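sry for the spam today, last one i promise. C-alpha coordinates for design, 134 residues
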Protein backbone atom coordinates (compact mmCIF):
# COMPACT_ATOMS: atom_id res chain seq x y z
CA UNK A 1 0.00 0.00 0.00
CA UNK A 2 2.89 2.35 0.75
CA UNK A 3 4.32 1.77 -2.72
CA UNK A 4 1.03 2.78 -4.30
CA UNK A 5 1.01 6.05 -2.35
CA UNK A 6 4.66 6.77 -3.22
CA UNK A 7 4.00 5.98 -6.87
CA UNK A 8 0.94 8.25 -6.92
CA UNK A 9 2.86 11.14 -5.36
CA UNK A 10 5.76 10.63 -7.80
CA UNK A 11 3.34 10.61 -10.76
CA UNK A 12 1.72 13.84 -9.59
CA UNK A 13 5.09 15.55 -9.15
CA UNK A 14 6.32 14.32 -12.55
CA UNK A 15 3.09 15.40 -14.24
CA UNK A 16 3.30 18.87 -12.69
CA UNK A 17 6.92 19.24 -13.80
CA UNK A 18 6.13 18.16 -17.38
CA UNK A 19 3.22 20.61 -17.53
CA UNK A 20 5.14 23.53 -16.01
CA UNK A 21 8.37 23.15 -18.00
CA UNK A 22 7.14 21.75 -21.33
CA UNK A 23 3.42 21.82 -22.08
CA UNK A 24 2.75 25.31 -20.72
CA UNK A 25 5.71 26.71 -22.69
CA UNK A 26 4.46 25.08 -25.91
CA UNK A 27 0.91 26.35 -25.39
CA UNK A 28 2.21 29.92 -25.31
CA UNK A 29 3.27 29.53 -28.96
CA UNK A 30 0.64 27.11 -30.26
CA UNK A 31 -0.46 29.49 -33.05
CA UNK A 32 2.94 30.71 -34.14
CA UNK A 33 6.33 32.13 -33.29
CA UNK A 34 7.61 35.00 -35.44
CA UNK A 35 11.07 36.58 -35.46
CA UNK A 36 10.97 40.35 -34.93
CA UNK A 37 10.93 42.51 -37.03
CA UNK A 38 8.14 40.81 -38.94
CA UNK A 39 5.33 41.46 -41.39
CA UNK A 40 3.63 38.08 -41.73
CA UNK A 41 0.19 36.72 -42.57
CA UNK A 42 -0.92 33.92 -40.24
CA UNK A 43 -4.05 31.82 -39.98
CA UNK A 44 -5.68 32.13 -36.56
CA UNK A 45 -8.80 30.49 -35.11
CA UNK A 46 -11.56 32.50 -33.46
CA UNK A 47 -11.21 33.16 -29.75
CA UNK A 48 -8.79 34.74 -27.31
CA UNK A 49 -5.05 34.56 -27.96
CA UNK A 50 -2.26 35.98 -25.85
CA UNK A 51 0.61 37.70 -27.67
CA UNK A 52 3.93 37.25 -25.87
CA UNK A 53 7.19 39.11 -26.37
CA UNK A 54 10.14 36.70 -26.17
CA UNK A 55 13.86 37.36 -26.09
CA UNK A 56 17.10 35.81 -24.89
CA UNK A 57 18.29 38.63 -22.63
CA UNK A 58 19.77 37.26 -19.45
CA UNK A 59 17.81 38.35 -16.38
CA UNK A 60 18.67 37.49 -12.84
CA UNK A 61 15.92 35.63 -11.07
CA UNK A 62 15.53 38.58 -8.71
CA UNK A 63 14.74 40.84 -11.70
CA UNK A 64 11.47 40.97 -13.60
CA UNK A 65 11.90 40.66 -17.38
CA UNK A 66 10.75 43.67 -19.37
CA UNK A 67 9.72 44.19 -22.98
CA UNK A 68 12.57 45.76 -24.99
CA UNK A 69 12.33 49.45 -25.82
CA UNK A 70 10.59 50.23 -29.08
CA UNK A 71 8.52 47.03 -29.21
CA UNK A 72 5.20 47.45 -31.03
CA UNK A 73 2.66 45.09 -32.59
CA UNK A 74 -0.11 45.77 -35.10
CA UNK A 75 -2.66 43.07 -36.02
CA UNK A 76 -4.96 43.59 -39.01
CA UNK A 77 -7.29 41.50 -41.14
CA UNK A 78 -5.24 40.32 -44.13
CA UNK A 79 -7.87 41.06 -46.79
CA UNK A 80 -9.46 44.29 -45.60
CA UNK A 81 -6.51 45.75 -43.69
CA UNK A 82 -8.84 46.66 -40.81
CA UNK A 83 -6.93 46.76 -37.52
CA UNK A 84 -7.82 44.47 -34.65
CA UNK A 85 -7.77 46.02 -31.18
CA UNK A 86 -5.39 44.59 -28.60
CA UNK A 87 -6.38 44.41 -24.93
CA UNK A 88 -4.41 43.98 -21.73
CA UNK A 89 -3.11 40.42 -21.24
CA UNK A 90 -5.01 38.30 -18.70
CA UNK A 91 -1.87 37.76 -16.62
CA UNK A 92 1.17 40.05 -16.70
CA UNK A 93 3.41 37.36 -15.18
CA UNK A 94 6.50 36.66 -17.31
CA UNK A 95 8.10 33.22 -17.60
CA UNK A 96 11.78 32.35 -17.88
CA UNK A 97 12.93 29.01 -19.27
CA UNK A 98 16.02 27.75 -21.09
CA UNK A 99 17.62 31.17 -21.45
CA UNK A 100 14.44 32.77 -22.85
CA UNK A 101 11.92 35.10 -21.28
CA UNK A 102 8.31 35.33 -22.43
CA UNK A 103 6.34 38.35 -21.35
CA UNK A 104 2.57 38.57 -21.95
CA UNK A 105 2.10 41.70 -24.07
CA UNK A 106 -1.51 41.79 -25.23
CA UNK A 107 -4.74 39.86 -25.56
CA UNK A 108 -6.04 39.38 -29.09
CA UNK A 109 -9.79 38.63 -29.31
CA UNK A 110 -10.84 37.36 -32.74
CA UNK A 111 -14.58 37.01 -33.50
CA UNK A 112 -13.97 34.73 -36.47
CA UNK A 113 -11.15 32.57 -37.84
CA UNK A 114 -9.13 33.85 -40.77
CA UNK A 115 -5.94 35.35 -42.12
CA UNK A 116 -4.37 38.15 -40.11
CA UNK A 117 -1.34 40.31 -40.87
CA UNK A 118 0.97 40.73 -37.89
CA UNK A 119 3.55 43.48 -38.01
CA UNK A 120 6.03 43.86 -35.15
CA UNK A 121 9.10 46.01 -34.52
CA UNK A 122 11.59 46.39 -31.71
CA UNK A 123 14.36 48.87 -30.98
CA UNK A 124 18.05 48.03 -30.85
CA UNK A 125 19.37 46.05 -27.92
CA UNK A 126 16.92 43.14 -28.01
CA UNK A 127 18.57 39.72 -28.08
CA UNK A 128 16.91 37.32 -30.55
CA UNK A 129 13.43 38.83 -30.16
CA UNK A 130 10.35 36.84 -31.13
CA UNK A 131 6.61 37.21 -30.89
CA UNK A 132 4.54 34.19 -29.93
CA UNK A 133 0.80 33.70 -30.26
CA UNK A 134 -0.88 31.26 -27.93
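last one done:
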Amino acid sequence: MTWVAVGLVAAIILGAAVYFFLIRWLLMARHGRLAIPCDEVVELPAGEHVIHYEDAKRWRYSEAPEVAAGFSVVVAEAESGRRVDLAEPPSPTPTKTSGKSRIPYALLVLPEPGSYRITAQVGPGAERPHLTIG
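Residues 12 and 98 are 23 Å apart (CA to CA). ok im logging off now
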